[in-house]
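Hi R.,

Here's the chain you asked about this morning:
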Amino acid sequence: MSSNVTQSSLGGLPLEFQKKLIALLERLEGRIAFPYDDADGKRVGGPHGKRTISGNLTIGIGWNLEQNPLPDHIIDEMAVWMLERMRRELTNAHPWILKLDEARQIALLLMAYQMGVGGLLKFRKMLDAIKEGRWEEAEKEALDSGWGRRFTARARFTAYILRTGVIPSEDLI
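And the predicted structure, written out as tokens:
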């Protein structure tokens, strides 16, 4: 069992009972970190493209996404896990980011969440402008990009944060 199961995570079941149950489910269902077709166990989507599935869209240890959508707290945990990982990668590459105000750190994480840290790191001129506090130039560099032209509303929203250090109200998204 590769996860850290706690007593509270399965409604108060005894920890040893949880471990046995998860281990057996994993033996029977498998543990697959990507969406797969439960009829044949083959990955859906990904680098091999789309294909018709004959069973149910499933993930993890037999979690049928069609009959059991992910609960909000799991979706939130997944997002937090990803954001924490991205923040570590980003600040390892550019430690000065930790000195930015909260709003600008959030803007960079919003970009990284959409395009990956590797994609964000390609915005060298924008990152240089941010590091040097040239906020209008940072905004221009964010908007004057393939990302800025393709995701216009999102890019404007994020670039506004970079320029002003203020997260706008919802009506500006």
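The CA atoms of residues 125 and 141 lie 7 Å apart.

Let me know if you need anything else.
M.
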